[in-house]
């Protein structure tokens, strides 16, 4: 068995995580292992000087106890990260780890977070969609204001009608879209290739936007297929065709929601709300859970099942129709 300190093993493990996982995941795992190191310190196992052979499964129980002051979601994430570290130690023969006992300790001590049904204001989202669809009839004195309005309309309608995650929509290139078939091939969550379908109204909104952008794209000196589908139209971009960032995508939704619904709606609708809207729309129209799962690209059907419920407003209407009408 190789002799390493716990800190050295943690560094090597986190290097492996950084190579295989996303930046966000790597950051979460790093935070979790930093906390785990503090816990070990408190139990007289200083990671800087203690060999990995001093570690056993009991430390996961200490970690679970330490995490009681944090949210159940954080607890679950951090215990997953530390479990991965234990699996790494076992695989590399750096410590004698009883993995079944480790998992038993986690089951005994970790909280089970309650499942929350996804809630979103369907009627408010439809008001936002109606608001941005009105941009086509508006007159704009400034060319860039018109470009931004048509882009934002196309962006929001695309989110609502495709189920794309905000970072996926922001990363689209013109060449990703098959205009004849109304679909795009993307690299989605988990680096998985997926086909995303576009509705007639989202394709129309994109055509209106790209037609208004034609001169800008034509003067870029780049192949049209390589240009971003959604571009920046601000002073910083100038006459260059630069892609919008995820932050810009979120700001587009925030600004147009505020314009459509007023300041009191701030924070009520996010880009992910449109994904909820998409999944629920599919379920309401078809009742087909497998279809909704495939179109939303959920790897686990249990995620899709969370959307298969009526909203509170629909329950209210149904209740009062049954019990109050005619009384």
Q: How many whole angstroms does the radius of gyration measure? A: 25 Å
- Describe the largest sheet: 3 strands, antiparallel
What would you call the structural class? mainly alpha
Stated plainly, the CATH topology of the largest domain is called hpI Integrase, Chain A
* Helix fraction bin: 55-70%
Descriptive notes:
- With 327 residues, this protein is mainly α.
- It folds into two domains: 6-109, Orthogonal Bundle (DNA polymerase, domain 1), CATH 1.10.150; 122-315, Intergrase catalytic core (hpI Integrase, Chain A).
- The chain is 57% helix and 4% strand.
- The protein has helices at 6-20, 23-42, 58-66, 72-91, 99-109, 122-133, 143-162, 166-170, 200-212, 214-218, 246-261, 271-286, 289-296, 301-305, 312-323, and strands at 177-178, 183-187, 193-197.
- It has a three-stranded antiparallel beta sheet, with no helix packed on it.
- The longest helix is centred in the first third of the chain and has 20 residues, at 23-42.
- The radius of gyration is 25 Å and the shape is elongated.
Sum this structure up briefly:
This protein has 327 residues and is mainly alpha-helical. The protein has helices at 6-20, 23-42, 58-66, 72-91, 99-109, 122-133, 143-162, 166-170, 200-212, 214-218, 246-261, 271-286, 289-296, 301-305, 312-323; strands spanning 177-178, 183-187, 193-197.
Task: Spell out the blueprint of helices and strands.
Elements lengths: L5 H15 L2 H20 L15 H9 L5 H20 L7 H11 L12 H12 L9 H20 L3 H5 L6 E2 L4 E5 L5 E5 L2 H13 L1 H5 L27 H16 L9 H16 L2 H8 L4 H5 L6 H12 L4
Antiparallel strand pairs: 1-2, 2-3
């Amino acid at each position: 068995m190789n002799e390493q300190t716990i800190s050295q093993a943690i560094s090597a493990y986190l290097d492996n995580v950084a190579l295989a996982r996303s930046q966000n995941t790597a950051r979460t795992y790093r935070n979790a292992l930093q906390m785990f190191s503090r816990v070990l310190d408190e139990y007289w196992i200083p990671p800087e000087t203690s060999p990995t052979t001093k570690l056993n499964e009991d430390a996961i129980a200490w970690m679970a106890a330490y995490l009681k002051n944090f949210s159940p979601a954080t607890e679950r994430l951090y215990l997953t990260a530390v479990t991965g570290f234990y699996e790494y130690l076992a695989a590399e023969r750096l410590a004698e780890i009883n993995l079944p006992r480790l998992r038993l300790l986690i089951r005994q001590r970790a909280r089970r977070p309650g499942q929350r049904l996804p809630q979103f204001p369907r009627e408010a989202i439809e008001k936002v969609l109606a608001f941005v669809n009105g941009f086509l009839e508006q007159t704009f004195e400034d060319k860039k204001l018109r470009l931004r309005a048509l882009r934002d309309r196309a962006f929001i309608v695309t989110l609502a009608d495709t189920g794309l995650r905000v970072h996926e929509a922001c990363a689209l290139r013109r060449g990703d879209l098959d205009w004849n078939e109304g679909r795009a091939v993307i690299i989605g969550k988990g680096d998985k290739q997926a086909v995303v379908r576009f509705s007639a109204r989202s394709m129309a909104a994109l055509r209106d936007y790209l037609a208004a952008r034609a001169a800008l794209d034509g003067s870029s000196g780049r192949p049209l297929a390589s240009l971003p589908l959604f571009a920046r139209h601000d002073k910083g971009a100038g006459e260059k065709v630069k892609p919008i960032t995820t932050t810009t995508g979120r700001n587009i939704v925030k600004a147009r929601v505020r314009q459509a619904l007023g300041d009191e709606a701030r924070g009520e609708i996010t880009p992910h709300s449109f994904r909820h809207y998409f999944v629920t729309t599919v379920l309401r129209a078809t009742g087909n859970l497998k279809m909704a799962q495939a179109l939303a690209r959920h790897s686990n059907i249990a995620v899709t099942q969370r959307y298969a419920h009526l909203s509170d407003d629909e329950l209210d209407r149904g209740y009062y129709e049954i019990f109050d009408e005619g009384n």
